[in-house]
C-alpha cells in the first residue's frame, strides 16, 4: 500500500473515532443528565407542581431553589423560627460547606429546605436521596422520615447510602434535610435528589443498578479469568497486571450497586473507592508501556508519577476530615494536570508505537483517542451528572481497560494456539521416535534371521549337491524355490532412501494394512535432504495420521491412502491422498476437527510448519477423497516466530 494512502486512511479512521466518541458524550450529556432534564424547578425555595406538570414530568430532579441554612442543624420546629437568615442554593454548584470561601472550613453542619406545593388530592410520591455526606436527618413536614448516622456534633457518627422514601402528601409540603460532615472531602447535599412517581423512580433506579451490575460482573469475571491464566500460562507479567486492573475496575465501577444496597461508613470504603480510580490509571499506564515497548526511562517516570498520585489520593482520602479548602483545591488542580498529562502521554506513546509498526498499538491508539475525548468533554461540559451510567472519565477509563484487554487476549489466544501446536509437534516427535525404534527392531530381527540363514547355508548346499548328483531335478527346483521364499521374507523392504521418512511411512503403512486400508507409495526422496527432517516428519506424520483416521471413520467404499513425493529443482513436493465418506467441516478458511470441537490441531500444525518455511500448501476435497499438496523450498532458513506472541 502507498505510504500516503496508508496515512490518509489512518487519519480518517482517527477522525471517525473522534467524531463518534464526541457524539456519544454529547448524547450522554443531553439525554442522560440530571441537569438537562426539562422540568419546572423551585424558585425562591418553593416548587409549584400542577396536575398537568405532574402528568408531563413524572420524574424531576430537585436542583434549584433550595434554602440553605449554614452552620445549623434544624428541625421542623426550629425551621419556622429562622426568618430570612438563609441563602438560595443550586445543588451541585458547591461540593462542601466552605461555599468557595477559603476562610471557611469545608466541614461542619448545614440544613437544606424546600417547600413543595402539590395538587390538593392526596397522592403517593417518592424521593430518591443520593449519597449525602456524611450524616443526616430528613424530615417531611413535621415527621422524621430517614436518618443516616448521627449528625449531632456531640454524638457524631458518619454513614451514608442512596435511599428512596415513599410518602403520601397533598398541598403544601416541606422537605428539610439537616446534615453534618466531619469525615469526607464532600459535604452536605452534593447531588440533586429525584422526586416523582414511585414506579418511574424505581424503574430508573433499577436500570441504573442493573447497568452498573453488568459492568461490575463483566470486570469481575475478567479478573477471575485473568487470575486463572496468570497461574496456568507463561504470560504472567502482563496477565498479572491485567488481573489487578480488572480488580481495581470492579471496585471502581461497583459504587452504584454497593451504595444503593449497603449503608456504609466513610472510612475506609470511600477512600478505597477514590484510590481504585487512580489505580486503574496506573495499571493502564504500566500495560500501555509494555505493549507499546516504550523506552525504559519513560516507563519508570510515568509509572512513578502515576504511583505517586495513587499514594497522594490515599493520603487525601484518609485525611479528609483534616483538609482545608486550599488543600482540596490544590489536589483538584493536581488531578487535573495528571489526567491531562496521562491523556497526552498515552496518545504520544501509542502513536510512536504505531509508527514503529507495532500492530497491537493501533487498538491502544484508538482507545487513547476516546479517553482523550472523554477528558476534553468532561472539561467542556462540567454541569453533568448521569442518570443511568457513569461520568465521562469513567467511560473513558473503562474504554482503556477494554482496549488493553483486547490486545492481551489476542496475545494469549495466539500464544495458546502456538502452545497447542507445539504440543502436537511434540507428540509427533515422540511418535516418530517410537517409529524409529520399531524400525530398528525390525532391522535387527532381519539381521538375526540373515545370520541364521548364513549359518544354515552349508546344510542347504549339501542338500542341493545330493539332489543334483542323484538327478532329482524336480525336488531340486522345489528346494531352491523354498530357499528363495525364505530369503524374500527376510528382506526389509525400503519405501524410500531417506531412513527417517522410511521409518515414518513404514509405520503408517503397517498401521493401514492392519486396518484393511490399501496403502500405496511413490517416494523419490534422496538419502539426505537439505531440510530439517524433524519438522518434515512432523508435517507428513500429521497428514498421514489424519488420512488413517479418515479411513477408519469411513463406513462405505474402498479405503485407500496414497503418498507420493519427490525432490527436484530446489523444491520438496509431497502429495497425500485419502478416501473418506464424511463431510469436510470448515469455518472460513480453516478446517474443523472431526474428533473435537474447534479447529484441528494436526492441520493447524501443518499450516504453521509450511508458513514457517515459506512453503505452499493446497488442501481440497472432491468425490475421490481428501487431497493435500505441499511444496517446500530446500536449503532455506525457517522464518522466526514472533516473540511477541509468546510472552514478554
UniProtKB/TrEMBL annotation:
Q: Name one GO molecular function term.
A: kinase activity
| The keyword Transmembrane helix is assigned to this record | yes
Q: Does the keyword Transferase apply?
A: yes
Keyword annotations for this protein? Kinase, Membrane, Transferase, Transmembrane, Transmembrane helix
What name does this protein carry? Sensory histidine kinase DcuS
Q: Any stretches that span the bilayer, and where are they?
A: 12-31, 207-231, 238-262, 268-288, 300-318, 330-351, 363-380, 400-423
**Domain Sensor histidine kinase NatK-like C-terminal residues, every copy:** 533-633
Return the PANTHER family for the record: TWO-COMPONENT SENSOR HISTIDINE KINASE
- The highest taxon in the source lineage is Bacteria
Matching entries from InterPro entries are given as: HATPase_C_sf (IPR036890), NatK-like_C (IPR032834)
Amino acid at each position: 500500500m502507498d505510504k500516503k494512502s496508508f496515512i490518509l486512511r489512518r487519519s480518517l479512521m482517527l477522525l471517525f473515532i473522534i467524531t463518534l466518541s464526541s457524539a456519544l458524550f454529547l448524547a450522554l450529556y443531553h439525554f442522560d443528565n440530571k441537569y438537562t432534564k426539562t422540568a419546572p424547578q423551585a424558585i425562591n425555595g418553593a416548587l409549584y407542581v400542577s396536575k398537568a406538570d405532574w402528568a408531563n414530568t413524572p420524574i424531576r430532579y430537585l436542583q434549584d431553589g433550595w434554602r440553605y441554612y449554614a452552620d445549623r442543624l434544624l428541625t421542623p420546629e426550629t425551621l419556622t423560627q429562622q426568618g430570612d437568615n438563609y441563602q438560595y442554593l443550586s445543588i451541585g454548584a458547591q461540593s462542601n460547606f466552605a461555599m468557595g470561601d477559603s476562610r471557611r472550613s469545608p466541614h461542619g453542619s448545614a440544613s437544606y429546605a424546600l417547600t413543595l406545593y402539590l395538587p390538593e388530592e392526596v397522592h403517593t410520591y417518592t424521593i430518591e436521596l443520593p449519597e449525602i455526606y456524611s450524616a443526616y436527618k430528613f424530615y417531611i413536614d413535621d415527621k422524621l422520615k430517614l436518618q443516616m448516622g448521627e449528625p449531632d456534633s456531640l454524638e457524631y457518627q458518619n454513614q451514608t447510602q442512596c435511599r428512596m422514601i415513599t410518602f403520601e402528601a397533598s398541598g403544601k409540603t416541606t422537605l428539610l434535610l439537616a446534615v453534618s460532615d466531619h469525615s469526607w472531602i464532600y459535604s452536605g447535599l452534593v447531588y440533586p435528589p429525584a422526586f416523582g412517581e414511585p414506579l418511574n423512580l424505581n424503574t430508573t433506579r433499577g436500570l441504573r443498578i442493573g447497568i452498573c451490575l453488568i459492568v461490575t460482573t463483566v470486570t469481575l469475571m475478567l479478573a477471575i479469568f485473568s487470575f486463572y491464566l496468570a497461574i496456568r500460562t507463561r504470560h504472567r507479567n502482563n496477565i498479572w497486571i491485567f488481573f489487578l486492573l480488572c480488580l481495581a475496575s470492579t471496585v471502581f465501577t461497583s459504587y452504584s450497586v454497593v451504595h444503593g444496597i449497603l449503608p456504609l461508613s466513610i472510612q475506609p470504603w470511600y477512600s478505597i473507592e477514590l484510590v481504585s480510580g487512580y489505580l486503574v490509571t496506573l495499571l493502564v499506564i504500566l500495560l500501555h508501556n509494555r505493549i507499546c515497548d516504550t523506552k525504559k526511562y519513560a516507563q519508570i517516570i510515568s509509572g512513578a508519577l502515576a504511583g505517586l498520585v495513587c499514594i497522594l489520593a490515599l493520603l487525601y482520602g484518609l485525611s479528609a476530615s483534616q483538609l482545608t479548602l486550599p488543600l482540596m483545591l490544590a489536589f483538584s488542580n493536581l488531578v487535573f494536570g495528571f489526567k491531562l498529562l496521562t491523556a497526552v502521554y498515552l496518545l504520544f506513546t501509542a502513536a510512536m508505537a504505531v509508527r514503529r509498526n507495532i500492530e497491537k498499538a493501533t487498538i491502544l491508539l484508538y482507545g487513547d483517542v476516546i479517553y482523550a475525548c472523554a477528558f476534553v468533554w468532561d472539561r467542556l461540559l462540567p454541569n453533568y451528572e448521569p442518570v443511568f451510567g457513569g461520568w465521562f472519565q469513567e467511560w473513558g477509563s473503562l474504554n482503556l481497560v477494554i482496549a488493553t484487554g483486547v490486545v492481551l487476549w489476542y496475545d494469549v489466544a495466539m500464544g495458546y494456539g502456538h502452545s497447542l501446536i507445539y504440543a502436537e509437534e511434540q507428540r509427533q516427535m515422540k511418535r516418530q521416535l517410537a517409529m524409529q525404534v520399531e524400525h530398528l527392531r525390525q532391522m535387527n530381527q532381519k539381521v538375526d534371521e540373515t545370520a541364521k540363514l548364513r549359518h544354515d547355508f552349508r546344510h542347504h548346499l549339501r542338500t542341493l549337491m545330493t539332489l543334483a548328483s542323484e538327478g532329482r531335478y524336480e525336488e531340486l527346483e522345489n528346494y531352491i524355490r523354498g530357499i528363495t521364499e525364505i530369503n524374500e521374507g527376510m528382506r526389509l523392504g525400503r519405501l524410500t532412501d531417506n531412513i527417517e521418512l522410511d521409518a515414518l511411512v513404514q509405520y503408517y503403512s503397517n498401521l493401514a494394512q492392519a486396518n484393511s486400508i490399501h496403502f500405496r507409495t511413490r517416494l523419490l526422496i534422496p538419502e539426505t535432504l537439505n531440510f530439517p527432517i524433524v519438522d518434515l516428519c512432523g508435517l507428513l506424520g500429521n497428514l498421514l495420521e489424519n488420512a488413517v483416521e479418515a479411513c477408519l471413520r469411513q463406513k462405505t467404499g474402498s479405503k485407500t491412502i496414497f503418498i507420493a513425493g519427490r525432490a527436484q529443482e530446489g523444491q520438496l513436493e509431497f502429495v497425500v491422498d485419502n478416501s473418506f465418506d464424511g463431510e469436510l467441516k470448515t469455518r472460513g478458511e480453516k478446517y474443523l476437527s472431526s474428533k473435537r470441537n474447534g479447529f484441528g490441531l494436526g492441520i493447524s500444525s501443518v499450516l504453521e510448519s509450511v508458513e514457517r518455511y515459506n512453503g505452499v500448501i493446497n488442501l481440497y476435497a472432491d468425490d475421490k477423497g481428501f487431497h493435500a499438496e505441499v511444496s517446500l523450498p530446500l536449503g532455506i532458513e525457517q522464518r522466526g516466530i514472533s516473540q511477541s506472541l509468546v510472552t514478554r
